[in-house]
Prior knowledge:
This protein is of the alpha+beta class. Helix content is 20%, strand content 33%. The protein contains three helices and ten strands, in the order E-E-E-E-E-H-E-E-E-H-E-E-H.
Amino acid sequence: MAIRAEYIWIDGTKPLPYVRSKTKIIDDAEHLPIWGFDGSSTNQAPGDNSDCVLRPVFSCPDPLRGGDDILVLCDVCLPDGEMTPHPTNTRAACVEVFEKFADQEPVFGIEQEYTFFKEGRPLGWPVEGYPAPQGPYYCGVGSIEIAGRDIVEAHTKACMDAGLAISGTNAEVMLGQWEFQIGPVDTVAAADQVWMARSLLYRVA
């Protein structure tokens, strides 16, 4: 039976890259094919030679579409037949270092902080001026102290349903600011799962 596989990758935008994705219809989730995209539209290739390759490296259930649909994190590679990592592909260096020191069994826990914005200002902030000084917002409870909990709850459940190693969430020191934690897991898994969790946060929010 055909399923939807959402191929996800990190683009070449500077100073901070964007998450990109597109949907591939496949018949077999056990054998994920490579795919391609137009790198001239993602700051990863010139217009006259724009082919880039997506190589699946990590997959998990798609908690938003449900069913047998999946999310697929991909390496970006050059179309040279050798699967040479694209210059924007920093994951390749991470894998190399992890394999070099795998006997030491490194583990990482990552905190991802973020702020919700709506209509050009942090979520929950007044149209003019500023909210009350920081103090009550960190790990706050109630609609006066926090903003965006409905999104946070939906994102947390999505990460859990996807099988990601999300280990906690909390409101941060500024109104509209939150964080989630991934791990402890190994080096590459920490990076892969943080990016997958970021992608889910964009979709949920």
